[in-house]
Amino acid sequence: MIEICNSSEDELSMFVIIISFTVPGMECIIGIIGNGFIMVINGAEWVQNKKFSPSGRILFFLSLSRIALQSCMMIENSAALIFPSFYKEDTVYEIFKVIFMFLTFCSLWFATWLSIFYFVKIANFNHPLFLRLKWKIAGLMPWLLWSSVIISFCYSILFSQQVYNTSCIHSIPKPFSNFTKKKHKINTNMINLAIIYNVGMFIPLILFMLAAVLLIISLKKHILQMESNTTGYRNPSMEAHIGAIKAISSFFILYIFNFIALLLYMSNIFDDNSFWTVFCKIIMAAYPSGHSVLLILGNPKLRNNWGRFQHQICSCCLSSRSWTLSGK
């Protein structure tokens, strides 16, 4: 008797397949376009000036990691839906998870360094340690970015050995044939998953929250100083503080939703064809896309370049339409 190992996705409904493809797919495409735009703008600045500004370097690394992350999400989602038996092979499944978590950790670290950079450049403190950091942050940034890549790789490798184990179970004889159908089962070590996942996520998150809290303290200190000097409230420093706090707060809200959805998805506690699995995929795809949109809207240089890019696209479309009509 021959055994065939199939996956529970054989019973996926067409509705689940369509939703799983279209909604996360569209979110990933939007994110790839947005992050691609950010990467091109900062890459062009690097080519033109022969060097990266610290913020441009962070945005370039961040957008590159987000493009790779969302491309990985699209490939993994397609493999899980179209080739479920291949996807849930032990080695293949672990490779997907290692790559996915490596890119996730990198993306979080780069976003954290971006927030810390904004904090250091905007905040006003007289502590010697802060002043030294303010002076050296530009030189430290390349080292911090590459260190984040190494740390992310080390944490992601643990997912290949300590968390998942796939096996074939539930032998089901197929009528009128000499085959036995078996289903894949993924056994998740929840303790190891919680430890590796939380340690990998919480360290950059703590740094991120520390920068946010200190930025708010700096803003409060700035307001009190202005009140004592009877100065108008709206000045460049105030605007910079408020803009940075808005950006950090928006990212934090997106991150919390992504953190929960990603943990639920990685734990495999829901059926593959359940509503909650699809919903987690939608949240996970929305997080890097939404943050790229916020970065473009919140950065004057990116926002102005995006406006010019839209204007050029509209002009090209109108010119093409006019040429087509005149040709007729």
Automatic annotation (TrEMBL):
Its main location: membrane. It holds the Pfam family TAS2R. It is a multi-pass membrane protein. Residues 34-265 form the G-protein coupled receptors family 1 profile domain. The keyword Cell cycle does not apply. Signal peptide: none annotated. GO terms for molecular function: bitter taste receptor activity; G protein-coupled receptor activity. InterPro entries: GPCR_Rhodpsn_7TM, TAS2R. Gene3D superfamilies: Rhodopsin 7-helix transmembrane proteins. The chain crosses the membrane at residues 12-38, 58-83, 95-120, 140-158, 195-219, 240-264, 276-298. Keywords: G-protein coupled receptor, Glycoprotein, Membrane, Receptor, Sensory transduction, Taste, Transducer, Transmembrane, Transmembrane helix. The keyword Metal-binding does not apply. It is found in: Membrane. GO terms for cellular component: membrane. Belongs to the G-protein coupled receptor T2R family. This is Taste receptor type 2. It comes from Sarcophilus harrisii (Tasmanian devil).
